[in-house]
Amino acid sequence: MDHSTIPRSRFVVTEALLSQLDVVTDIALSSLAVFDPAWDWRFPNRLIHPSEHRLLTRQKFHNFIADKNSKWRVFIAQETATGATPSKTVGFAVWDVSNMQSRTAALKTDRQDRQTARRSPDLVLDSTAKPPTSPHHEKDGHPQRLAAWAETTSKARRELFDEAFGNRYFSLQILAVDPQFFRQGVATLLCNWGIKMAKLKNMSIALFASPQGRLFYPTLGFEAISTVEVQASNDEAIQLIAMAYDSRSRISAQTTRENMSLPTQQH
Ligand SMILES: CC(C)(COP(=O)(O)OP(=O)(O)OC[C@H]1O[C@@H](n2cnc3c(N)ncnc32)[C@H](O)[C@@H]1OP(=O)(O)O)[C@@H](O)C(=O)NCCC(=O)NCCS
């Protein structure tokens, strides 16, 4: 194949740095805060307290980016620079890879490589690291809804994802694209990292989808598992769709398709 004829991608995906914290916060506030009803549901007073909302959102993303070697990994998509136009950050994805880390460490241990696993900082959780503190959205958020959200999503994780996949899955925690760049393949590129890792490590990917995500994820092979309703007492409820990319079923489905498409030999 003549690779010179393949157009270079307009976007590149790299791991986020703390120096990109402000632009990640900007995208969260222009995308999630506007297009994801669950954001509005959890932070209904964000427009009354915009600076507090920005500060706490920034703190949340600081925790994600600074913690990239243990529980979280954050990737950004950038539009590549052309001529005088500098590169521009257009989207990001936050992955919860804690199961990936513990599985990798466990596999190492299985191979009696305990010493290496204990020493290597990117294979095991650092038990000496201070856990990041969760921002308290007292003014901009709805405390009862935030508590119900934390409780219901962690219960759903246990009952749906742990039940189905054990520790053989990791999660896409947050995905957001700058609205000016919707429908240009940015989210697809950001998710490709996870899909590649899922195939490589024979793991599945779990997530709770927003209404827009519900339309997007099936294009990558994710399937809806269940609807999860989150509600604080006597308050309006919000629905999330639990979805998963099951690399095992995709591998077996693909194998079956390949087997079925094998030409039958006629003698
Ligand atoms: C959902 C979201 C991440 C999708 O990002 P994106 O970069 O626009 O997605 P892509 O361009 O990679 O979309 C790939 C395909 O998914 C489908 N898709 C994506 N967004 C869609 C939408 N709003 N409506 C219908 N289909 C959609 C389309 O089939 C699209 O291909 P096409 O444009 O060639 O038809 C983006 O809309 C977003 O950031 N929304 C606000 C935040 C949010 O809801 N995040 C998800 C949290 S779970």
UniProtKB/TrEMBL annotation:
Q: Where along the chain is composition biased (Basic and acidic residues)?
A: 108-121
UniProt xrefs under InterPro entries: Acyl_CoA_acyltransferase, Trichothecene_AcTrans
A single Gene Ontology MF term assigned here is: acyltransferase activity, transferring groups other than amino-acyl groups
Give the span(s) annotated as Disordered: 105-144
Listed name of the protein: Uncharacterized protein
